[in-house]
Write a structure and sequence with these properties.
By secondary structure, the chain is mainly α. The chain is 38% helix and 6% strand. The protein contains ten helices and three strands; from the N terminus they run ααααβαβααααβα. The longest helix is centred in the middle third of the chain and has 23 residues. The protein starts with 7 loop residues before the first helix and ends in a 61-residue tail after the last helix.
Amino acid sequence: MFFLDLNDKQLVLTASHLCLHDVIQLSRVNKRLQNLVYNNTSVWTTDHLFPEGDPSITDRFVARLVPRITRFYGIQALRLVRLPLSWSGYLRIFDQFAHSIAYIDLVTSGVCLSDLIYHLSIFAGNLAMLQQDNRIPITFRQYAADSEEYCSALAATGYLGQQSWRNLTPLLSSLELDDPPFERLVQFRVSSTDHAEDENAQIHQLHFLTSFLAGKALAFPPPQRTNTHSQAHHHHKRSRDEEPVIPIPYPKHRRHDLVSPSMHHRPYEASSGYT
């Protein structure tokens, strides 16, 4: 029997045991397989969705792959560890999965963390202003596509200073979002790969922002130091029984002191690994 002679259920079962890049290759065989791969929730699980340290998981890869995956509530944890993504790549991932995510594990460079904080600050400020004006909120994808416009809009309100984001702190601290984008998020673990001196300040900034975007105080676990070779197996077949177990740690209090992110760092653009 030829592979393509299998029925849809058998093909989906096969795809569900492949690694990410094999699933993508399978989807390119024909239109039937493309529809089966991207429209079946059983194909997409947390394990190996974004393989740790995979150099092909770039902004362009994310922009082309992630919107094709059908939206559902099955992805409850994201591991975004040592990936060559800029802030816009992370925001596009959040746009697709924020509605269902309970746990996020983020490990990236201090420069990228600064950029992510910079843009999440503007995104959060715009959400706050739009809610105060009774207008439709923006999405992560909309912001990633036109960040300069939203930066200008927030600057015009007076909440965005030229050299400091402290004006945003009272606004975000006093407002509760009606429809927080991270509606199910309970834990956001973050650390930098270079362990910079301001890493703790960056972590507090990110937790302040994500707590606002979740509509509640989040669990604040200590940074997890990862082994760069711990995911060397990501090209192997996936096991359906190897879902990551992410414990819920003791809760910490929400911080209300947004420290200004570095202004001299600019997002880097990774080369595409998706063709």
